[in-house]
Every structure is written in C-alpha cells, then in structure tokens.
Design brief:
The protein is α+β, with helices and mostly antiparallel strands and 118 residues long. It has 2 domains: 1-30; 34-117, no CATH class. 27% of the residues lie in helices and 34% in strands. The chain is built from 2 helices and 8 strands. The protein has helices at residues 2-27, 50-55; strands at residues 38-40, 57-61, 64-66, 69-73, 78-87, 93-99, 102-106, 116-117. The strands form 2 sheets. The protein has a 4-stranded antiparallel sheet, with no helix packed on it. It has a 4-stranded antiparallel sheet with strand order 3-2-7-8. The longest helix is centred in the N-terminal third of the chain and has 26 residues, at 2-27. It starts with a helix and ends with a strand.
C-alpha cells in the first residue's frame, strides 16, 4: 500500500508543476492577447473587425478610459470621437480626430490584460 501512496504523491507533485507552468504561460503576453494597432467601429471602414469588437476592447486616451471612441490608432497616437449628434449627408456621425497617447486592451482578459501602447 505504501507504493500506491508514494506514486500518488509523485503524480500530485507533477500535476502542481504542470499547473504552475500553465499559469506562467498564461501571463506571458501573446499576439492574440493584444488588440490591433488600428481599429474602427464603422463596418464600411477597412480597419473594422467584428471578432475583435465582440471580445471588447478597452481604450485609455490621455490617461482616461473612454467608451465613445469611433476609431483609434495606437502607433500614430490619435482617436476619433463623434462630434455631438451631428451627422453628414449620408447619415454617418461627424468625427473629430484627437491626438495623444492611446492604450488598448481586451476587456475579456480581466484587470491583468496586456496593454498595447505606442
């Protein structure tokens, strides 16, 4: 009976090591864990990506978390926001381009999500 107990203890130790390795691997940022450099919510825009938007992308602009962003570019350092309720002749919202530091992350990864910065 002692042989079974020793084997079970060895198996448990091996499982703990594997779990620790998995946790360490989960904390390493992966390319799929960081949002794209440029993204738009307008389906007619070439930078529109439905799958990314469904995951939920958080945006921090000049240190403040914003939810009214129509489009952003991290590398170029700008965001587009709607200018009030004004629409153009085709029914699209008029937007203003604001320059400053932009950070983006996936909201579904929680508080420890890797942040894309310029």
């Amino acid at each position: 009976m002692t042989d079974k107990t020793e084997n079970m203890a060895a198996d448990t130790t091996g499982a703990d090591t594997t779990a620790a390795d998995t946790t360490a691997a989960a904390k390493t940022p992966d390319a799929s864990d960081v949002p794209p450099d440029r993204l738009s919510v307008n389906p007619r825009n070439e930078h529109f990506d439905q799958e990314v938007l469904q995951r939920g992308v958080g945006i921090r602009f000049k240190g403040n978390q914003r939810r009214d962003i129509e489009e952003y570019s991290i590398s170029e350092g700008w965001v587009r926001v709607q200018a009030g309720k004004t629409m153009d002749r085709k029914g699209n919202p008029l937007t203003i381009k604001l320059n400053g530091p932009v950070e983006a992350w996936y909201e579904d990864l929680g508080e420890d999500a890797p942040v894309a910065k310029a």
